[in-house]
Amino acid sequence: MTFTNAADGFLGLDEEHLAAYDSAAIVVQQLPYEKTSSYLKGSKEGPQAILDASAYVEFYDEELRNEPCKMGIATQEALNFEEMTGEEVIQSIRENTASHLANGKFVVSLGAEHTVTYGIYKAFREKFPNVSILQIDAHSDLRDSYEGNILSHACVMARINHYAPQICQVGVRALCKEEAELIDRSENIQTFYGHQLRDPKLVDKILNSLGDDVYITVDADGFDPSVMPAAGTIEPGGLLWFDALDIFREVCSKKNVVGFDIVECAPRPGDVRTQYNLAQLAYKLIGYSLTK
Ligand SMILES: [Mn+2]
What we know:
Layout (H helix, E strand, L loop, with lengths): L25 E6 L14 H9 L18 E3 L10 H17 L3 E6 L4 H12 L4 E5 L19 H6 L5 E6 L4 H9 L3 E5 L8 H7 L4 E7 L21 H14 L1 E8 L9 H18 L2
Helix pairs in contact: 1-8, 2-3, 6-7, 7-8
Manganese (II) ion binds next to loops.
């Protein structure tokens, strides 16, 4: 396992804030796997783009009034998935994640396509058997298969749902009839659609649909395209910045958030909003999750 130089890793940490893996509370893993994108390509560039953008994020969080990076953040070199089958990729991600969890790290994953979450989830479930999932996404990703592939990005939550954890989806505004029917008949899946985002009780309802241990998966397209324009499959509507922070702040303070991933950033030349905002979001989530 190899790690980046501090300057090349998350936040571009300087000597004072440098963290070696052994002393770091947090590890960032880069998972540039992209095989099944259905609309715009480029999500495999997402992890590096988010890391590059993170160099411009302030260490100090004005809301938390501390420097969360002082807990130590190590960034692992990108995993290489060349010439692997989808199953091998999932297995590789599971093993890598599990080794960090075994070392007691808080694991932050920067994905390419959403499929990576399946491998990550398998490792988290081994350590936290009752872990719930909070999914921020424009799509429910509950199709059993897509274009003949059960390991498509469009099916990631169907794979995870096989284990029947509590799943709370927020911002969904594109799905097929079969997915909506599955949501309606599933006791373990609670979906808050895009048109329900303005419900003043939304945050309470989200909290009520989750267990004590929570894993968060953020698909960039769950946000409004004005906030995250460079997602692989955008949809109008979606979460605005402070809508999302209100949710994350409450979930992180009331629940035990055990880790998170950020996926589906497909950077476009000339517009750094998506990767910068996701870098900022990753740092916010680190701060919210680990500041008690
Ligand atoms: Mn997704």
